[in-house]
Design brief:
globular, 5-stranded parallel sheet, binds 5-phosphoarabinonic acid, 449 residues, 18 helices, alpha/beta
């Protein structure tokens, strides 16, 4: 089971401080469990690992089998919560050098992502890459109107139709969107694309365990039954008991105590490059959920040990507003042992006989102690293994912790009003009808820059 520890941060706060904010954490729990807090219409993820739609789940499995056997590439189009979760799990569990082999060792489609930027280079490179490959598309957008994926879908749908014909393209397009509303839903109905649902009561960044994440994850040969089982185990484990014994609540409480002391940036630290995108998913979850009303911890991430040679200096000795949470995979992999070298020019023969895993662990421990000495509180989240079950647990742990943390900080965990500001300006500058006045004002401001 996942283990959360704040032992290496106790130098920075007293245990009784947890007791002091206990009633606030209990109030947060009531808001979550009784669904009475701000944004409570979006608490569907809370019981989702138990209540998810089994019929749709079977359809996801069948579609993923078809994708694996019939196509070389699955192009997944989405942004934010409709993108990061799938990428996080796939990159964590699949061998990046075996693009056509699933995490289960059997044939799978290569999964590539689009629709999360507006870069012409990125588009052209993907079009070029796809030109001699048999591909399918999974377009994912809850609203169905988000600019980036909508533009990408226009471009890549056209390519798909040009390459395989409109009728065949219909078989190759899988749509994940709202049950009732939106442009994508309408289009899917008109064209007869296979359609999967983003549940009404689950927002984008909490949706990885719905069809949003499950279809691409299954197409990558990852066992989605195990993923759901891990989330279900976490759900049962965190449903009961005192907030002080609940790791998700504890994590939220400790990070809020640290924030109130001026530790305003949290860095998630991994020692496993395959977790890079998991940290990206975590950044979005916490950043978009907490960063509002001029409050919230800024979420950052580093990949160690590589970033010890870039960001390590700042973390050790820069301005003191940072705390770290080490995301550690417990299971020791003993397959790689460092051998003695006769010349020993690098002086590393003292490592002869050590596994690479133990060197990595010593690097983590040494770094943690050094950073604590440098004034950086360290927390740790440990998972038993890098597998689907453990990632299911971890996803649920972070989602619940995020809801606690946002409510502790008196903000709505489930909205993202600030995301609209850039969109309004972009639409105005692009001449969208109805934005004429705003356009004039923005152009005038740009002239002065
Ligand atoms: O968490 C969120 O709600 C957002 O990040 C959305 O997932 C993101 O903006 C994409 O939205 P949509 O799925 O409607 O295209």
């Amino acid at each position: 089971m996942l283990n959360f520890s704040y032992k290496t941060a106790t130098k920075f706060f007293a245990e009784e401080e947890l007791e002091l904010i206990r009633s606030q954490a209990e109030a947060a729990r009531t808001l979550i469990v009784e669904k009475t807090g701000a944004g409570s219409d979006f608490l569907g993820w809370l019981e989702h690992p138990e209540t998810y739609d089994r019929e749709e789940f079977q359809r996801i499995l069948s579609a993923s089998e078809r994708i694996r056997s019939d196509y070389e590439v699955l192009l997944v189009i989405g942004i934010g919560g409709s993108y990061l979760g799938a990428r996080a799990v796939i990159e964590a569990l699949r061998n990046p050098y075996q693009t056509r082999v699933g995490a289960d060792g059997k044939q799978a489609a290569e999964i590539i992502f689009a629709g999360y930027n507006l870069s012409t280079r990125a588009y052209l490179e993907i079009l070029d890459y796809l030109k001699d490959k048999s591909f399918a598309i999974n377009v994912i957008s809850k609203s169905g109107t988000t600019t980036e994926p909508a533009v990408a879908f226009r471009v890549f749908k056209k390519e798909l139709e040009a390459r395989f014909g409109r009728e065949e393209a219909k078989r190759r397009i899988f749509v994940t969107t709202d049950r009732e509303r939106g442009a994508l839903k309408t289009l899917a109905d008109q064209e007869g694309y296979e359609r999967f649902i983003v549940p009404d009561d689950i927002g984008g960044r909490y949706s990885v365990l719905s069809a949003v994440g499950l279809l691409p994850i299954a197409a990558a040969g990852i066992d989605i039954e195990d993923l759901m089982a891990g989330a279900r185990a976490a759900m049962k484990c965190y449903a009961e008991g005192d907030v002080l014994d609940n790791p998700a609540a504890q994590y939220a409480m400790v990070r809020n105590i640290l924030m109130r002391k001026g530790f305003s940036t949290e860095i998630t630290v991994n020692y496993e490059p395959k977790l890079h995108f998991f940290a990206e998913w975590w950044k979005q979850l916490f950043g978009e959920s907490e960063g509002k009303c001029q409050r919230g911890i800024f979420p950052a991430a580093v990949d160690n040990t590589s970033d010890l040679h870039s960001m390590g200096q700042y973390i050790q000795e820069g301005r003191r507003f940072l705390f770290e949470t080490v995301l550690w995979v417990q299971s020791e992999q003993t397959d790689l042992v460092i051998e003695a070298d006769e010349a020993n020019l690098d002086g590393l023969n003292f490592l002869a006989g050590e596994t690479l895993a133990s060197v990595n662990k010593r690097a983590m421990q040494g770094t943690m102690l050094a950073h604590v000495d440098g004034g950086v509180p360290n927390l740790s989240v440990e998972i038993g293994a890098l597998d689907a079950f453990a990632l299911g647990e971890l996803i649920y742990f972070y989602e619940l912790a995020c809801a606690y943390s946002a409510y502790l900080n008196a903000v709505n965990p489930f909205n993202q009003p600030g995301v609209e500001a850039y969109k309004k300006n972009m639409f105005a500058l692009l001449g969208k009808p109805g934005y004429e006045e705003a356009r004039e004002a923005l152009e005038a401001r740009l002239e002065t820059i």
